Amino acid sequence: MTSMTKPADAVRARQVLEAASAGPSHKLMTAADAVRRFVEDDFVVAVGGTNHARTPMALLWEILRQGRTGLSLSRPLTCYESELFIAHGAADRVITSWVGIGHGWGLAKVLREYVEQGRATYEEWSHLGLGLRYKAGAMGMPFLPTLSMMGSDLATTLGVRTTECPYTGQTLQAMPSLNPDVALIHVQRADIHGNAQIDGYELMDADVARAAQRLIISAEEIVPTESFRRDPSRTLIPGFAVDAVVEQPFGSYPHECYGRYDSDHEAFSDYVEEVRSGGSQGARSYVDSVLDAHPDFESYLGSIGEHRLKELRELAEGMMPK
Fold first, then answer.
1. Dihedral angle over CA of 76, 313, 249, 305, nearest 10
2. For residue 102, is it within any domain?
3. Taking the CB of the first residue and of the last residue of the chain, which one, N or C, has fewer CB atoms within 10 A?
């Protein structure tokens, strides 16, 4: 496990990426195979999207299903998936700038319980600070200079070092690089080679994809490569950076995927009610109930019902420009 502020070995991370680019061009596989091949215990796992936007829930549930442990989850704004991992015993560390579903559901009570009892670590960075860590990792740099977090308790708690500008002598915060062991990113479309496009906000996913030493993409649909060649400027993630591609419609449910379906607020409320009534045990029971009842994500979606999924699809489509 990487320490709080020690930068990743950017040279080694780059070598891993270069070696991976020589692998097979056809990267389409199941979520189970992708997780089995590319996610190991004690990994730092970067989660794409932010809060409940384009969260790679199908991949996250598969990691829980396969029983990985000792994980650290890294994400710009983290939703309740971090609590699922901590309560289930899959993760014991969260690297982020904020945790919670958002207005109406309150903050992350399960994470707070575990952190206050010393059973989990909450590593808090500013939103920009974490973005610069990904950016440094993507660039192959050990750190990037910034004013973000300068003089804050966050910087002191994390032990973030400063550096002197060689041109002005100004003191700057030195944000250490972050090269996750594996990243999980959900997109609207990809091809079998891993080329991927994202509609709507791209968030930090381009840097996350390039910083990670392994990358699993889940996509709402797999499209012919020719469609990417007709509009190459929209390809945010290049195939050479990708290790596995998983076709998974509604792969973010109950979170949203821009233009495809809205968030299922009822599902959020169901989870929060479990926590309100049972605390961390409620979160564990929530995970267990899903895993025990469903051998894969398709089975889970089947339990939601086509009618509800259709409603969420229509909500998203109704908000799109005409």
1. 110
2. yes
3. C
- What are the strands, taking DSSP E only, across 75-133? 91-96, 100-102, 106-107, 121-124
Identity of the amino acid at 191: D
Both tokens assigned to 131: 């973005």
Residue 73 to residue 65: CA distance in whole angstroms: 16
Go through the chain and tell me how many residues it has: 322
Max distance between CA atoms of the chain, in angstroms, equals: 62
Tens digits of per-residue pLDDT, 40-74? 999 999 999 999 999 999 999 999 999 999 999 99
Which domain does 229 fall in, by range?
10-142+177-249
CATH, residue 112: 3.40.1080.10
In the chain, the amino acid numbered 132 is L
Number of domains in the chain: 1
CA distance linking residue 214 with residue 21, whole number of Å? 11
DSSP notation for 125-147: --HHHHHHHHHHHHHT-SEEEES
74 lies in some domain: yes
Strand partners, 96: 124
DSSP state of 6: P
Six-digit token string for 171? 């003191």
Report the alpha-carbon distance of residue 260 to residue 316 in Å, rounded.
6
The reply to whether 75 falls in a domain is yes
Taking only Cα atoms into account, the Rg of the chain, rounded to an integer number of angstroms, comes to: 19
Instruction: Report how far residue 182's alpha carbon sits from residue 39's, in angstroms, rounded to the nearest whole number.
Output: 7
Q: Which two tokens stand for residue 31?
A: 């979520």
Q: Which amino acid is at 26?
A: H
Spatial distance between the Cα atoms of 93 and 175, rounded to a whole number of angstroms: 19
**Per-residue pLDDT reduced to its tens digit, 291-312:** 999 999 999 999 999 999 999 9
Bridge pairing between strands 44-47 and 71-74: parallel
- Whose tokens are 């596989």? That residue is 29
- Confirm whether 242 is domain-assigned: yes
pTM of the entire predicted model: 0.93
